[in-house]
Amino acid sequence: MIEQDCIFLNHGSFGAMPHVVRAAQDRWRSKIEAQPIRFVEHELSPSLRAAAADLAKFIGAQGEDLVFVENATAGINAVVRSISFSPGDRIVATDHVYGAVRKALSYVCDRTGAILVEAKVPFPLQDEDEVVAAIADLLNPKVNPKVKLLVVDHVTSPTALVLPIAKITALARSYGIPVLVDGAHAPGMLDLNLTELGADWYAGNCHKWLFTPKGCGFLWAAPDRQADLHPVVISHGYGDGFIAEFDWVGTRDWSAWLAVTDSIDFHQELGENLRTRNHDLAVLAVQMLAETWNRALPAPLTMLGAMATIEIPDRILDQNPDWDCKKVHNFLWSNYRIEVPIIPFGHKLWVRVSAQAYNEAEEYQTLAKAL
Ligand SMILES: Cc1ncc(COP(=O)(O)O)c(C=O)c1O
Q1: Tens of pLDDT along 296-316?
Q2: Residue list, ligand 1 pocket, CB within 6 Å
Q3: 351 has a pLDDT exceeding 90
Q4: Do strands 217-221 and 66-69 pair parallel, antiparallel, or not at all (unpaired)?
Q5: Which domains can be identified in the chain, with CATH numbers?
Q6: Which of 4, 49, 50, 134 has the smallest set of CB atoms within 10 Å of its CB?
Q7: Backbone angles phi and psi of 153, in degrees to 5
Q8: Do the beta carbons of residue 206 and residue 257 sit within 8 Å?
Q9: Triad 258, 260, 262: Cα angle to 5°
């Protein structure tokens, strides 16, 4: 549904909904509104569970371990606000953590006296083991004796890195530390097998790379982590178990969750190799930008999914010393109708390009020339 006369290189922020998915959402809304009592009393619960089973199958999990939430932020909040932290407990994250998640962690720390510590992950980096080493330093009980939770991104937001989650969960497990994975970008971008990742909780979004309507996130919890897990909004289901608590968080518009099956069908219709195609395009784009702007590549190419982040060329700030990310963004939009995020990270400005089915190589060349 994206407008035609622009170069849309920011699928990563809010996705883009196909017309067929919009139609599916409309059908669910009509069904709900035709007889809301019958729908809520008889059809909602089985329909939600069927949608959860379809999503679980797509991401390598079991439907009974997965609930829908509004978005990844809600899933992450549910986990961190269900854990009892004591003063001095540590929550470890990385300095690539998404800003809103950092705030949710800070909120929990402010209320409980827990302390947030961030592992410094180099960027650009040469090897995924640099990430593991940075986290290992902080999980070491000699450095932080009371680590109660590790929060780690599957795909980082500012730097677009695919982190080695299985290695990180194995490391945390060796210290007995539970892991919450922020998988906001992963479903649809990466080939997922949640059951094998070794996480305790995994929060994800379907409204980015899986083409659902906005407001379709999920929370997966390992079976032994479900009993003490509660949604941020407590409602009728309280005390009746994981699924009952999350499946009813008050009256809402359920259509985005229920349309997930059509979104998966659409994703699969585009072909088994959509993920590879998007990855290859992101790689092509970042290699071309790196060469044109004489910049280092962000990471080994195996650490990229369908996005890549690279520092903007020096000449932009040399010629416009007062420009910030907003001004660079506005320059690109008003002169070239290029929609792409400009991101401040580590005192520098970066551009993050996304590659989705509707993008083509020439669009990144226009960006290269524009900057
Ligand atoms: C890594 C990461 N976590 C969480 C989020 C939040 O997603 P939402 O706003 O859908 O909750 C984002 C959004 O871009 C993200 O990139």
Answers
A1: 999 999 999 999 999 999 999
A2: 13, 71-73, 98, 100-101, 153, 157, 182, 184-185, 205, 217
A3: yes
A4: antiparallel
A5: 7-16+272-370 (3.90.1150.10), 26-267 (3.40.640.10)
A6: 4
A7: -85, 145
A8: no
A9: 105
Q: State both tokens at 83.
A: 């854990």
Instruction: Name residue, tokens 């669009």.
Output: 363
CA of residue 96 to ligand 1 center, whole Å: 12
CA distance 312 to 290: 9
- pTM of full prediction above 0.90: yes
Residue of 11, 68, 151, 185 to test ligand 1 pocket, by largest number of atoms within 8 Å of CB: 185
pLDDT at 294 over 90: yes
Q: How far apart are CA 255 and CA 213, in angstroms?
A: 8
What is the predicted pLDDT for the residue at 271? 83
Run of H or E including 354: strand 348-354
CA of 368 to the centre of ligand 1 (A): 27
The string of pLDDT tens digits covering residues 180-200 is 999 999 999 999 999 999 999
State the average pLDDT for the chain.
97
Q: Which two structure tokens, joined as six digits, stand for 82?
A: 């269900």
